[in-house]
Amino acid sequence: MRIALFGAPGSGKGTQAAILQDRYSLRQLSTGNMLRAARDAGTRVGLAAKSYLEAGKLVPDDVVCGIAYDALSKCGFDNFVLDGFPRTIAQAEWLDLEMEGVGGGFRLVSLNVPHDAIIARLSKRRMHPVTGEVFHLEFNPPPEDLDTADLIQRKDDRPATIEQRLRIYDIQNATIRDHYADQGSLIEVDGVGSVQTVAGRIAASLSL
What we know:
Distance between the termini: 10 Å
Largest sheet: 5 strands, parallel
CATH class: Alpha Beta
Number of strands: 7
Number of helices: 8
Number of domains: 1
Structural class: alpha/beta
Helix content: 40-55%
Radius of gyration: 18 Å
């Protein structure tokens, strides 16, 4: 089974990828985790990524693809769920070629969530400044003995910032959506609802 989850920040990709991993014995491969693992392991591509990460710069496509190759190789290019990859058309075209080389493609599941719903989700996140623990005022509230006045809202979780991130996402990822739609491998799923409701829709769309 080869799956890639696609969606805007806050659409629930990470949560749904973890469910797919647990239910169907897949390996969840998220861009962030792949980058950090390669960096910590000191691999060639990991060391290349490290300099960009430490400088706060975007990691180039060729480095990201090298890290993705290492991660996909470890699972034999099968039984995986990609979370946040590919992020650019160059990464998408690279992945297409790699999958052709192992005799098959994959299915791209797009989680569609309206911007106003994403803003409502993310703007309710709060962080404890001492421990760094992140809570959600609705879905994962802080314990009763913790005063919510002690929590802070990160800049990235402020409505204006979220809206700007979503606008950038729409522009950058329109070409990827079109790319896979033209191939007939794009599956669109309504991402609004409870975690289990959305998980059920994904399973049904994949005939699992």
